[in-house]
Amino acid sequence: MKPASTQPCPEWQAPSPADAGDPGCSPASLAAIDASCRKPILLLFGAGVVWLMIGTVLALLASWKLHEPALLTDHAWLTFGRIRPAHTHAVVYGFAFQAAMGVTLWLVSRLGRTPLWHPGIATCGALFWNLGMVIGTAALLGGESTGIEWLEFPRYVSPILFASYALMGIAGMPALGSRPQRRWFVSQWYLLAAVFWFPWLYSTANILLLFEPVRGAAQATVNWWYGSNLLALWFTPVGLGALYYFVPKRIGQPVHSHALAVIGFGSLALWGGWGGMQHLVGGPIPAWLVTVSIAAGLMLMTSVAANAVNLHQTMAGHFHRLRQDLALRFMVFGGMSFALAGLCGMLMALRSISEITHFTHLTIAHAHHGLYAFFSMVMFGSIYSIAPRLTGCPWPSPRLISLHFWTAAVGLLLYLGVLIPGGIAQGLAMNSPDIPFLEVVRGTIPYLRLRTAAGFVLAASHTVFFVHLAWMTASRVRDRDRPLHDATAHAIPISGGSAP
Amino acid sequence: MSAPIPSNTPAPEEPRRADPEGWEPTAVHRPLSVWMILAMGGLMLWGGWYLARYSAGFHPLIYDERSSVPPPSGAASNSVDLLIMGKRLYADTCAKCHQVNGEGVLGQYPPLAGSEWATAANPTQAIAIIFDGLQGPIQVKGITYNNPMVAWRDLLSDTQIAALLTYIRQQKSWSHRASAVTPEQVAAVRAATKHRPPLGPWTAQELPSLE
To answer: Which residues are CB-contacts of A497 (< 8 A; sequence separation ≥ 6)?
Structure first.
């Protein structure tokens, strides 16, 4: 479908002066903004990547154990039941969350033309967040888990994380509130909303599940509501906020349509929070609860479609830039995955499909589709764009960025290409009364082996990223006297081939 | 280690803005595509229809989205077919020893098919045997057995024991035509024999005293 809006209608007005671009602010105040962001955000990114590495090791181990159950079972802390939640927490709260927070703070202060308020507070928050992560992970490996998916950290950890979040959030508040332009840019809507949605989700889920636990089936309901909405109302808006900023910024074009952006945001805000219960199809909860989630999922497609079309039309005619602009590659990959993951999520919500796919490896594939192929890829692209501005030092090797991209892309395609059909096959087999359960389990082994292979490719890509970041830090440390707001810091990583 | 390339080398095609660093993106105001509006309207309609069709009247007690009948008010009915329940339970619990065909194993497990104990007009003794088990010599169809039977008091509910005995006592292929057993009868025996467990399984001599 080619939107008619690409042809100017008779009454179409030439862009008003405000649309011709926003002049931004003076280099001096940009320097002040970046200086305020430097410590907290580099800490968030650096620590995030360390957690990504930890999470990767745990993931490989967990994945391997699924087809080689006898591996490393002599130590209790290395058993599947402990390393699996440790993996999810390391990548979700260690990497993805910290990357999201860093990108959010940077975008908010950049777009609000306001430095972070007392950046030391945000740095403190980031430090405490990591402290909470260390305590929580140690507790998980020590066998102390709440057993509630995505909230497995024992309950004394949540107040630490919550308070750290508040510290980081406070530092961004003045920038979030300032509106020097006539109107807010799309990214600002998403970030403003996300910054308040997260504490709402996290505190509600913690209170209802860990502090004043609700009973019985209501627990599963709250649990799925939280898991689903952490993705829909925290990671998705942050990812979209970054996409709406970096895609137009890197190609030097305005966003295709304001109206589509309004629809995309409005429908996410309206329908995003109703999801989760579609995962309980057939479960012992009132039918209407499940139905509401499924209907909201259908309506959410308006958000997915509006954003996908809008971002695509913004990029249209500029796809050739992907050859040179390496950070943009991550963005575009992430944007496309967003559209696909959204579509899959809606389909999986439908009862007739959910009856097959639920309780299979497809659910895990879907989590990686949203959280990795969409969100993390966008975060990688954002870190590639932001970090040089904060360190004042360009990325040492465009080849490594390209290598990171290709290993990540290949690993992801393998992972999803294996686990999605594998999950469907598993679901069909489980629904067939003629196939004994053990045979179904045995049937998943080839898929699980290939999944481990994909894991190794992804691990290679993370290692490349980690090494590159360390290299950049090392060269910055060696080159201590370079002025921080050096023009070269505004590097757009370009591929090695086109370098003179 | 390749030498860091000068990073602000302009890409072959320079972005439209002269200064990409200072410039910040905006969004263009333009009318929406008609197709987009139609597609979104369609999705809304689908969602609304789905909600109306499968919400079962937003009733808190309906768990099946296709049902439009409200569940019966008042106490939930718990009527079960004792014969079907009994057949399943028999296969799971008693058939290990007494065999599926009820013939038992000669010299070890007495038969239930044709057993005077199982089909007696008053089911009290059979109920008691299931509750606390049986030990010592017992004559069934003229043959003496002496082998302990396990107790089921804490493992089976009144309804389950009633179902088992109803099934055994009315099993057509064993030509049984005894009366059905109700959960109330079982409950009465449970109360009357509640002091039995510490004394161990019944013996065939003790049983007649129960009636």
So the answer is: none
Residue type, A285: I
Residues of B in contact with A492 (CB under 8 A): 7, 11, 20
- The C-alpha of B41 sits at a distance from chain A's nearest C-alpha, in angstroms, of 9
Mean pLDDT in consecutive groups of 10 residues from the start of chain A, 500 residues: 35 38 66 89 96 97 93 90 96 97 94 90 96 97 93 95 95 82 84 95 96 91 94 96 94 91 95 90 89 93 94 92 91 96 92 90 95 97 92 88 96 96 95 89 95 97 96 84 55 41
d(CA B141, nearest CA chain A) in Å = 42
Cα A74 to Cα B133: distance, rounded to the nearest angstrom: 43
Mean pLDDT of B53-81: 75
Q: Is residue A400 part of a domain?
A: no
Structure tokens at A114: 């306001």
Q: Domain for residue A143, yes or no?
A: yes
Containing domain of residue A117, as a range? 27-180
| Residue A488 included in any domain | no
- How many whole angstroms separate alpha carbon B206 and alpha carbon A412? 74
Cα separation, B101 vs B87, in Å, equals: 12
CATH code of residue A119 = 1.20.120
Min Cα separation B69/chain A (Å): 13
Whether residue A272 lies within 8 A of chain B, CB to CB, comes out as: no
The reported pLDDT for the residue numbered B107 is 87
Is A141 inside a domain boundary? yes
When divided into structural domains, chain A yields a total of: 1
